[in-house]
Amino acid sequence: MTHPLLRLGTRGSPLALIQANLVRDALLAAHPSLREPGAVEIVPIRTTGDAVQDRVLSEIGGKGLFTKEIEEGLGKGMLDIAVHSLKDMPTRLPDGLVLAAYLAREDARDVLVLEGGKSGDIKDLAHGATVATVALRRRAILLSRRPDLAIVPIRGNVDTRLRKLADGVASGLVLARAGLNRLGRGDVGTPIPVGDMLPAVGQGAVCIECRADDDRVLALLAAINHAETMICVTTETAMLDVLDGSCRTPIAGHAVLENGDLWLRALVARPDGSEILTTERRGSSTDGIAMGRDAGEELRRRAGTGFYVV
Q: Is the sign of the CA dihedral 146, 205, 60, 156 positive or negative?
């Protein structure tokens, strides 16, 4: 085929490329017209967030640095769709772009990886142990449980972080189970129960972005959208939107469907973990956005001015 029917933009990390291939495979399974060789082209794009590895995201502009260049490609018509990890997405999208579909969510839990590949729980860490994570959410929750821990930032893809742990930068490392599973590394580390470390909003979910007026692409993506995941993550992002959450804000949220009912747990914390506020909502699967907004309003009211950074 001379020209691809669908150009799929993604970050170029090993995990991002695996996720892009999952989306491509789902599209090919749903649409025979895309199965001709070359019909779907994967276009790796190096984002600012990938290029700058020596500073934490809050110092260089936030989560949008993992999506900016890809979204510019969408807006200019150089790409037809973009594949992202939902937890990397800014709360609000650029004008003219929409999240049109989601793959089935992977395990949303975090994982504690100990030095030497040992298994263990947060409570088992030695007094004053060093734990590596760049996420303020993880930092705040860890310090709320273990104020004695020393938390150090760590950037890079999964393999880079595991290598740094092996090199002795810390006694432990916190990663997302979803990424490890997708990389075929599901045997690494000990999962942390959701009740002990509430996940980031959208953790484990792959989202697919396109132009809001591209009816052809919207129709293609509708066939691969996982409805249950969409209900859960839009509930979480509605909560995050009310809190105006960014990577400078320790916020967590996780929604699940249980026998047709929707259960949302949400959290906002001081960055040092000295205070954590939580709430939850239960209701109909059709009320997710309203539930999320209501939970966000409660947390914002209880937190008050100056509780967290926006």
A: positive
Task: Give the pair of three-digit tokens for residue 248.
Answer: 């400078």
Both 187 and 39 in one domain: the answer is no
Residue from 88, 110, 214, 294 carrying the catalytic annotation: 88
DSSP class of residue 198? P
pLDDT tens, N- to C-terminus, the chain (310 residues): 556 799 999 999 999 999 999 999 999 999 999 999 999 999 999 876 565 555 555 554 555 667 889 999 999 999 999 999 999 898 889 999 999 999 999 999 999 999 887 778 999 899 999 999 989 999 999 999 999 999 999 888 888 999 999 999 999 999 999 999 999 999 999 999 999 999 999 999 999 999 999 999 999 999 999 999 999 999 999 999 999 755 577 999 999 999 889 999 999 999 999 999 999 999 999 999 999 999 999 999 998 866 654 4
Q: Please indicate, yes or no, if residue 306 is contained in any of the structural domains.
A: no
CATH code (residue 99) = 3.40.190.10
Q: What is the DSSP string of 244-290?
A: T--TTS-EEEEEEEETTEEEEEEEEE-TTSS-EEEEEEEEEGGGHHH
Q: Tell me, yes or no, whether 199 lies in a domain.
A: no
**Catalytic annotation present for 88:** yes
Classify residue 211: in a domain, yes or no.
Answer: yes
